[in-house]
Amino acid sequence: MWFPIDLHCHSTASDGGHSPSELVQLAHQNGLKYLALTDHDTCAGLDEARQAAAEQGIELINGIELSSIWANCGIHVVGLGMDPDHPSMQQAQAQQKQARIKRSEQIDQALQQRGMTGVLERARQFGASDALGRPHFAQAMVQLGYVDTEVEAFNRYLGSGKVGDIRCHWPSLATVIGWIKESGGVAVLAHPLKYDLNWRRLRLMLNDFVAAGGGAIEVSYGGENPHRIIDLVRIAREHGLKMSVGSDFHRSEFHWSQLGKYPPIKGDFDPVWQEWGIELEAG
Question: 248 with 223: CB under 8 angstroms?
């Protein structure tokens, strides 16, 4: 099953390659009827996206993707349907902004210790200082000739467990779920099989996720193995979680993740979008 909805994507407000309005235009071209803009740790792109969505006849759902820590593992939680002006969401963005600044400085220090100088200054050409992410560092490293491709930058220096994977400044999983819930949103576990957790640890994490108020899990997302979708649907049902879908789209040149594209869903499906009265037929 595929639905004309994408509940996980990024714009230039964080580390995406398209402006919010360009992203909405692309969503229209790709046949989407509903879209959630979920930039990393910021709601800065929502106003522009909302205006563009009204012009294109697309319903925009407020979104954000918050970084957190669980058992020393970096976990991303998507917030959907929250009020970006609520004090809790304002607090979330302010705290994450400071965390990103400190994290960027530490990533740069770690890279300097390996002979790579000037990366932070170059990364700031691709994103605001308070919104820098590892993809901005990867772009800078390519431009400066330290690696040949952004994929190499992640594989050698920035990916999970590598020297540039700095996590110490992120809040706890329970904290970010609280921010989302308090601001009227649904907390969704993003891309659950990207955390290098085995099935046992994933279930333990989901127990804590549910206990803290988490409400949904992405069961299909860009780049995931289609054969594992049925396992994710089963785990969602075991934990009483609603199910979400999203491409995790960043940039058009990333062929493995295109807006509105994710593996077909297998198994009984309990969609999170029914929380907002949205009824969709599978394509």
Answer: yes
